[in-house]
């Protein structure tokens, strides 16, 4: 992810440096000592609770740095820890001891107590240096000659002849602080991200796990869809055509002997065709709604809004046409949420907002109903979550009891190339 | 009555030509794509056009767009649009010029020949023929300004949009024609439609109904 400009202003930097001088070395060292003590004492039972206590403290401590560094760098730094397994204290301790993130945390404690501390001291010293050199000529005047004067060998800086050299130092300190201040601060934050964020390896393996599970979901959903289509065709249109053939055959047979009966059968046959057609229509809508092919996501959502019993406000701004699979997934997700709103929320109004920014499609659907919607397994919202997982999509539901409900769905996608456009 | 047909599937195009010819229509031209349809509609200015929504070259809503464009160039040109599916969105777009002479039906309605031919004639005469499926979507809507109507009045308005006469509505709802007349008057006044020629008012009531 691209880094954005630091979120900490230059003027706040000395403040942070001061905080970190107090917070890095003075806190890291006791935490290290505590952990070492716990490990040494663990053959005696006493050490175990100490270890557990300090493990929790270390994680809390590093979490503070994660949050701070995340703010400075403009990216969220996720916690890299493996989930703590269920079981007795030994299982838990073992999980703590085998988690690489634990060791990276301790490496951070060492580095923070040394390098981190030093960086903070330099940063603050440069800032304070500006002030010091500014008032130094004055100090030289009011103190005995040897306290604040320097001997550079070739010349001496003293209160009477060349006091302005101090101001040269002040300017120098200012320039250094101006340049180095942000660099040090960001360097510190990068250091924190490097050790406290998930390692590249951990990130990759997490990604592989996510992909495997989303692929499994996608395959499952597709198989279920095909089964549903097969069943619908079998029980619907196919059965109707069979009965149509029967009616026509009987009418053919009865045409001369009993024209009245034949006419009735023909009317029945016609009825069958229109039922079969209406079932096929429903099926087609479920596979790929024609209006989506005609008008893209924008028009299709407008059509959805019109067909919904609620009065739905639509606000769509899509500067590009999206790839067909994304359009389709987005359409069905919005359709599902709107249908839910009409069925369960008791709302009178709903709204849909769709935006595409920075390669991300954001969809929000809200209603003014009674709220209390959840993405519980088996429910419609959970189904949407599963479908969108193929696009790294996320679904968040804000639905306090009493309403209103807002469902936010996001997925990453690139704009459609012309070749990929539905024709 | 002169008619232009726009339909790309040969089977259906021939069927429509045969059916309409059998009912004394004169098919002046039958075309199979959007641009040709627009040209035919503007040059022939037929009494009525029967148009499929999905046609080449784009195989999207080509027919619908051609029909709307033709009505822009020839205001009030009667068009009956047929489709494999209906969208209220499209009904709204068709009626947005508020000129009447518009029909929008599912393709399967063709199988009820007499009713279909009647719909074509009604559209040619400046009336409307909305598919019951569009109407049923609308009936579930809780929107203004239809909120003021009683359920019965909504039902009557729906049948009016399908293009039925008061007599036909009366027969359908098992009430007297007079009762239907009372409902329609209530509908007109609730929708704020000033008295005018009854047909025109009906079309405008339907327009309000479709939220155009």
UniProtKB/TrEMBL annotation, chain A:
Domain (Putative sensor): residue spans on this chain: 23-195
Domain Histidine kinase/HSP90-like ATPase: start-end pairs: 330-412
Record keywords: ATP-binding, Kinase, Membrane, Nucleotide-binding, Phosphoprotein, Transferase, Transmembrane, Transmembrane helix, Two-component regulatory system
The enzyme's E.C. designation: 2.7.13.3
Domain Signal transduction histidine kinase subgroup 3 dimerisation and phosphoacceptor: 225-292
Classification via Gene3D superfamilies: 1.20.5.1930, Histidine kinase-like ATPase, C-terminal domain (3.30.565.10)
Annotated GO MF terms: ATP binding; phosphorelay sensor kinase activity; protein dimerization activity
Catalytic activity as recorded in UniProt: ATP + protein L-histidine = ADP + protein N-phospho-L-histidine
Main enzyme class: transferase
Cellular component annotations (GO), alphabetically ordered: membrane
Record-annotated membrane-spanning stretches: 12-37, 43-61, 109-135, 164-185
Name recorded for this polypeptide: histidine kinase
From TrEMBL, chain B:
Domain annotation HTH luxR-type: ranges: 142-212
Originating species: Goodfellowiella coeruleoviolacea
Family matches, as InterPro entries: CheY-like_superfamily, NreC/VraR/RcsB-like_REC, Sig_transdc_resp-reg_C-effctor, Sig_transdc_resp-reg_receiver, Tscrpt_reg_LuxR_C, WalR-like
Domain of life: Bacteria
Protein name: DNA-binding response regulator, NarL/FixJ family, contains REC and HTH domains
Pfam families linked to this entry: GerE, Response_reg
CDD domains, per the entry: LuxR_C_like, REC_NarL-like
Single GO MF descriptor: DNA binding
GO BP terms: phosphorelay signal transduction system; regulation of DNA-templated transcription
